[in-house]
Amino acid sequence: MFFEVLKRANFHGGIRYAKSENGKKWEYKKIIIDEPFHLPYPYMFKWEGSYCRIPESREDLSIRLYRAMSFPGEWQFVKSTINGEHCVDPVGSIRTGPAMV
Question: What is the pLDDT of residue 97?
Fold first, then answer.
């Protein structure tokens, strides 16, 4: 399970994950994406064999794409797909033409 975790020191949220064998007892793992701005809404999708995510990053005025280097615990920033805009809860859409976010 992936979820937002809020840091009380600066009220910025990062993305963390947890594992469970039975859905009742959870083992909380590390923060996998941490930036100097808030990152709610950890939307994830699979594209061309890679797990990707585009969490909300409106405080950065961007939509940022991350890719799993080693799923589920290692993620890397790929690029900002949109800059200079307040975008809330972005969702990707795969088409038969160019990809759009």
Answer: 67
According to DSSP, the residues that pair with 74 across neighbouring strands are: 70
Write the burial class of residue 64 (CB in 10 Å: 0-12 exposed, 13-18 middle, 19+ buried): buried
Pairing of strands 62-70, 74-83: antiparallel
Alpha-carbon distances of 41 from 3, 51, 70, 89, 95, rounded to whole Å: 8, 16, 21, 6, 22
What is the distance between the alpha carbons of residues 2 and 94, in angstroms, rounded to a whole number? 22
CB 15 within 8 Å of CB 7: no
Phi and psi (nearest 5°) for 59?
A: -65, -25
Question: Six-digit token pair at 35?
Answer: 């930036």
Q: What is the pLDDT of residue 13?
A: 83
Q: How far apart are CA 92 and CA 19, in angstroms?
A: 25
Residues 6+ apart with CB under 8 A from 93: 99, 100, 101
pTM above 0.90, yes or no: no
Tokens for 4, please give them. Answer: 């937002």
Q: Which two tokens stand for residue 74?
A: 């290692």
